[in-house]
Amino acid sequence: METANSTVSSSGWRSSPEELLKLAKYSTSELKPVCQELIYGEYREDIKLLELDATLLNELEHNSKLTIRGDTSDNAVLCTFDKTYELKQAITSNSLLLAPDLLLPTQIPDGDAENESITVRSVKVFSAIHDYVEARPIQPRLRRIKELLQRRLFSTDGSAAAASAARADDKVTLDSLLNGVQASQAEIVAYLEKIEAFVIDGSWTLLDFDYTTTVLEHVLDLIDENSWSSDCIPLEEVVDTLESIHRREVLRHVCRVFGHLEQDETHFGLNKSRVCRHYGELILRSAGRMHLGEFLECWQQSAPKPMATSLDDLQGLFLIEETNVSKLIEYFSLDQLSENIDERMALLFKKKARWTMSEIKCYVDDLAEDAASLITLISKHSRSYLENGQRYFCLKK
Fold this sequence. Notes:
Elements: H1 17-23, E1 34-40, E2 50-51, H2 54-61, E3 67-69, E4 77-79, E5 84-98, E6 119-125, E7 127-137, H3 143-150, H4 159-166, H5 174-180, H6 185-194, E8 198-200, E9 203-205, H7 209-225, E10 233-234, H8 235-242, H9 248-257, E11 259-261, E12 267-270, H10 272-287, E13 289-291, H11 292-302, E14 318-322, E15 327-331, H12 341-351, E16 354-355, H13 357-364, H14 371-381, E17 382-387, E18 390-395
Parallel strand pairs: 1-6, 2-7
Antiparallel strand pairs: 3-4, 4-5, 5-7, 8-9, 10-12, 11-12, 13-15, 14-15, 16-18, 17-18
Helix pairs in contact: 7-9, 8-9, 10-11
């Protein structure tokens, strides 16, 4: 370094840092007694920086593990035990130097007023980082689980699906789902319960819809034959009586899906809403589209007496179209929609020009974290207006 009056060589400043400070017009009393020299060499290319929010940092500090999940063709996601985060690369305008041995100001003691000497220590720079990875919370991508299990439906005799699942390399286990699904363990387990999956022969599976109807009708007939109260049905007696027709695991599963177990798990009561939903879906699947009045009459007749049917039980399964003459009901399942929000909203408004909040909510609920984010999501892809006191949502143009 050169000035008008003095020169300090780059190689000699280590032996006389005070001289350099004088040239910079700094007093040693203003500085810490340690000066750190950055040494640049070969950089490591295998280091990535991950930005953590307070929640993720707390997970690490309490010895929880973070896992990166997804199939080879997926974008990576980061999972805690119960949350999923999307990983995105972000560019920083300023280079970040990684120097593990660098001392922070709080690690260097204050200088001695009587001793103005400064110690120079060398610190190696291991890498220069120009980008980092952000972790943003997202809704888990769980649809793959149902798509996988629907290829292994358990039917009347277990047939091909059971035989396939019996092979060790073809079993769907929790471990295999954790390895291939972009979601946390708690989210996967909750989704398996939501779609009414169960384990048989060591593999997760779903019951074929028509076979479910057969088993349910046998259970309902048995309840009727024995004049049992629909609120107190002996579970093991049902299983023992029907095990010659259906497997015990299947019977227990159907009783759990269409009922609610009591605390001692020896008895269960029928979930009337769930039973009615099944029979309503059965009619809609078969008919596809029909007059609403005709459907309601047929549905009530098919439901076990004295259960009362209600369209509220069919949320996420139907659309109603109003014509000048009558109302039509059409089978329209949430399972038909994409997990991509743009594609889903486009299809929803293609299917129906305008929606009320109660109608559209059940078709986008799974993409929103809470009520506030649901409103934001719907508002982003639609515009709303009032008509006769009712708020409607339609596609933005």
